[in-house]
Write a structure and sequence with these properties.
The protein is mainly alpha-helical. 63% of the residues lie in helices and 6% in strands. It has helices at 11-24, 37-44, 48-60, 78-104, 109-126; strands spanning 64-67, 71-74. The chain starts with 10 loop residues before the first helix and ends with a helix.
Length: 127
């Protein structure tokens, strides 16, 4: 985990996003324990309350849950919940603006799809 103090995004949100990403990519599988607030706090040299605030965002989103006296665990179904959340964000951040710009350019749906296919092809060829 890395915290970037040079960006405007609050530290607790950076922690929540990085934990969420670690869950999504399988670093912390469903039903397993995640590092404690004190462990993360010591690792990043930040206040444990800041870490807890970030973790509580994931509790509120039902990604992790507390087991009293044992710590925080990844909730079953967390990966699918994160996937759905990210697909919604992807639509809002990229697709909606893509369609808006394409409409300004008077592009058809077929032309947009063709550009996306060309992008996939370029990506495949560069790997």
């Amino acid at each position: 985990m890395n915290i970037n103090l040079n960006i405007e995004k609050p530290i607790f949100i950076q922690i929540a996003e990085q934990l969420e990403d670690s869950i999504f990519t399988g670093v912390f599988p469903e039903k397993t324990k995640i590092p404690s607030t004190n462990e993360i706090s010591a690792l990043l040299n930040i206040n444990p309350h800041t870490v807890l605030k970030g973790m509580n965002l994931l509790v509120d989103d039902e990604i992790i849950y507390k087991k009293r006296g044992l710590g925080m665990f990844v909730k079953e179904g967390a990966v699918e919940k994160i996937r759905q959340k990210r697909q919604g964000q992807f639509y809002n951040q990229f697709i909606a603006s893509l369609i808006e710009e394409a409409n300004k350019l008077h592009m058809t749906k077929e032309e947009i799809i063709s550009l996306i296919e060309r992008g996939y092809e370029n990506e495949r060829n560069s790997n």
